[in-house]
């Protein structure tokens, strides 16, 4: 350590200098070395800090104070942290260190440069340990005195209570932990944002860029809804663009700090980036991704014609088995503005929200859940839905994008992260956390500016002026209370109404109603719930699916004691196979449909789930006929969610289905043998697996040939990329989650135009 200078310029930093410059400094140095346009910066090294401790004579007193501390004694922790920080701030920085810092600062530019001063903590034995978010950052610093002061404040922040506590719990010896300080030219961004160099969920090479006006804090903290651009690196074109209404921007204020400015007029709705700028950013992202070998989450800024890359770190939501240690960016915690990352999982329902953790281990615990809490549980079940309605966000250990928690949260517009594997172990009762349901990240503490707690709002423009598409864009509904929000998207109908959520919400099984002679009550509940949805979509098709609840979901309900215990309920007694054996349960559902048709709801269609042979459709229809349904004129169709039903599609068509809808959530799991709710195999759950696509393509072609409407209502219908593929392959309609309808409509419109354009060119 001896020869290491007090100050290192970015260009001088080598990989092995991480011990001296910390994760942040090393990362910036590495980015500069591969030619990314990083703002000018130097690092006050960890050695400068150690020399400061030694030369001012405070080292021994400082560490002695820390050694005796019991970090679990909150009062003592706070008081020792205060004393130690005061000690660091009370002494004068040695002259030679001051001189080297101010000399470097002078070399940055004439007349003083405005800089950001950021802590970059490091440990001797584990230099890439992650301490980010625990030490201070000072933006907008101008002049030597303020710079020296900010550096010393950063040093002191190494001994903040939270940082001391964290290190103690992680087993770090305070004596081995150092701090470097990055002094970087502050970019007064005219526009800024973040970029995923690959799709953050699917991993495809489609860079996604989010941008807004002013400093990047607005986007990073979620204080503004940014524009969203998708760039296709192969065709080198912007393939998707969503221009948001940007209400505010954050700009530097005075000589310190920042302020929020309300945007007005054109700037609110003007695109932040030109196509050329999107392309430029995407190319820089590619350089970073190629260099690090894994997709990156990049922060960028633009001033005039100059593009800057401020940070690059691995995307945390794409599960890649190997991120080589030391080669990827040193383990930096994401989103300094949001604080320390505690956990990650799959972002299942978009939005960012903070609140108090309540761990629900049993349905009984839900009484402790208060408005605005964060519900943390192994996996939600229908009994928890009332509590799910009250909370700000939901976090689960288990599950994937199509589990109960994911489906219900999206419907409620509540941010959710699923499949974290260990939320119920890591998070503590009463702890304040922030949940980012888009990126799938849980942060410690509350977001400073809780971005309108962002539950999947439906953009007003999308609702008032929907793009007309030839392919119908419908919406999925599971809870009748979501019907109005669903209709506000302007969707062309409901492609899937899952009635099991309605039934499971009754807390009693259909069997209970039958056993207790309460059939009318059951029919009335079904009738009322379905009618609420039909009323929200007058004149538009609403496909109601018959009951598809696995036995384990019934077991906690009154009457559930007699449910069989199945080793694999997913493959068990559910869907149409159960209704065909439980005649009375099926009859009650059909009775509710009959009454709705009789009341004039001609837009009601009925869809049978889990069919695997046309016989099942034939038998179900025959039973409906027997119970008085005019089956010749009723719109009856099937879910294609078992490979056999895709393979036998022509037989289904011959049997008389009016429509077919891909339930890709199940179709994928049954084709690939990947449990859709098992977070351990979530990265192998591949909607675009060639076998899945081939089944879908085969079934679409058969339906087209026979004039049968072919649709999709699985989660893949909410993925613009998949929908683009489906439209290209001739699907008639798609049904998406409420939050996804606007972007799906755009994807459909774009693909349709491309098909028309291609045809026109061919004929020209
Ligand atoms: C599906 O399987 O894709 C589907 C929509 O049904 P569910 O998610 O309810 O099983
Ligand atoms: Mg299904």
Discrete helix count: 28
- Strand proportion, as a percent range, falls in 15-25%
| Cα radius of gyration in angstroms | 29 Å
Q: For the residues shown, what is the average pLDDT?
A: 86
Span between termini: 72 Å
- Estimate the helix proportion, in percent: 25-40%
What is the total tally of β strands? Answer: 29
- How are the strands of the biggest sheet laid out side by side? 14-21-20-16-17-18-19-15
Apparent shape: elongated
Specify the structural class: alpha/beta
Spans with pLDDT under 50 lasting ≥5 residues?
Answer: 317-338, 448-465
- How would a crystallographer describe the biggest sheet? 8 strands, mixed
Distinct ligand kinds: phosphoenolpyruvate, magnesium ion
Can you give me a brief rundown of this structure?
The chain has 764 residues and is α/β, with parallel strands linked by helices.
Describe this structure in words.
Helix 22 runs parallel beside helix 24 (649-655). The protein contains 28 helices and 29 strands. It has 764 residues and is an alpha/beta fold. The N and C termini lie far apart (72 Å). Strand 10 and strand 11 (258-262) form a beta hairpin. The strands form 5 sheets. Strands 14-21-20-16-17-18-19-15 form an 8-stranded mixed beta sheet. An 8-stranded parallel beta sheet has the order 28-27-26-25-24-23-22-29. The structure holds phosphoenolpyruvate (PEP) and magnesium ion.
Short descriptors:
alpha/beta; 764 residues; elongated; 28 helices; eight-stranded parallel β-sheet; binds magnesium ion
